[in-house]
């Protein structure tokens, strides 16, 4: 009988051994040696049989509408030694086996969670920012894997020794995956201009923000490579949006609810460009876990909320901003030529202090976070 292929990679699956099973026509229940019990409905099992997926790529080769609504479990038997569960399905008289490890990895909530918890941080992060050498990452997969994990878990990491040549920011991004091209081009220069169409291209300070909230989808990762840093000032600023959002939820739950329930319009206009996207400042998933933060006072459009909601929204917006900008929350440091900063653009806010004299020149580009997670899964499987 075919055994289920791994459909979902879990970085650190909990070790479960099947001790016993029980079943009825509607559901299989597996009791693990840990004492936990996982339930697997008949339709879910039938939808995930090995023969329903392509042998090489694991993609499903039939549609859920092809499943019989009266799908039922006829019999089920556990082989404790082989750690497999043989199931006979009705009405199509199909026999198959499920690997117990596969079932443990795909157990339905709340038993097993595949998502690692992000490590939130405050200004003490200044002394423990994950740092790596560019040449080392190009030649050492273990070092690259650790750097990718830091970006995933902390939302930020630094690279040193990136060649001080234009275009190297894209070379660094390609360590992760693919560069995402935008109206700014494949890469963009962050340097003072006489008539900037974006405040980033001036010498003024930039408040903490996430980039491009006016896009749908928002770029998941931002890379900033320092080519020149002879100006006075211009220190980089960082703040963990997830930490601030958690603080808001704990201390001001009604404000947290306001910022998750109301979407606002973000907009960017330039010659030949009018980008708009509507989204909440704090986005949560179906389990109310924080999954994204958007904060950009330069590009938030005039609120178009109901008048009765405006005061409440501004109160929540201000408290969130205060949590983000608190002295205890903000990391400050100076990028030196050859340094490259990577931030999770849907979590970590970045900004800079104003500068004068000399020249400050960064090059930046974007990438999508799914490429990072894909690369990391592949590397962790082969480790």
Oligomer: single chain
- Helix fraction bin: 10-25%
Shape label: globular
Number of strands: 23
Q: Unreliable segments (pLDDT under 50, ≥5 consecutive)? A: 5-14
CATH H-tier superfamily of the largest domain: Clavaminate synthase-like
Return Rg in Å.
25 Å
The CATH topology label of the largest domain is Double-stranded beta-helix
How big a fraction of the residues is strand?
25-35%
State the CATH class of the largest domain: Alpha Beta
How would you describe what is shown here?
By secondary structure, this protein is α+β, with helices and mostly antiparallel strands. It folds into 2 domains: 18-105, NE0471 N-terminal domain-like (2-Layer Sandwich), CATH 3.30.2020; 123-382, Double-stranded beta-helix. The chain has helices spanning 42-47, 100-105, 134-139, 141-154, 168-173, 241-251, 253-261, 307-325, 369-382; strands at 18-23, 27-32, 37-41, 72-79, 84-90, 94-99, 131-133, 156-160, 179-180, 188-190, 206-209, 221-229, 232-233, 236-240, 263-270, 273-280, 282-284, 290-293, 330-333, 340-344, 348-352, 355-356, 360-367. A hairpin with a 3-residue loop joins β5 and β6 (94-99). It is globular and about 80 Å long.
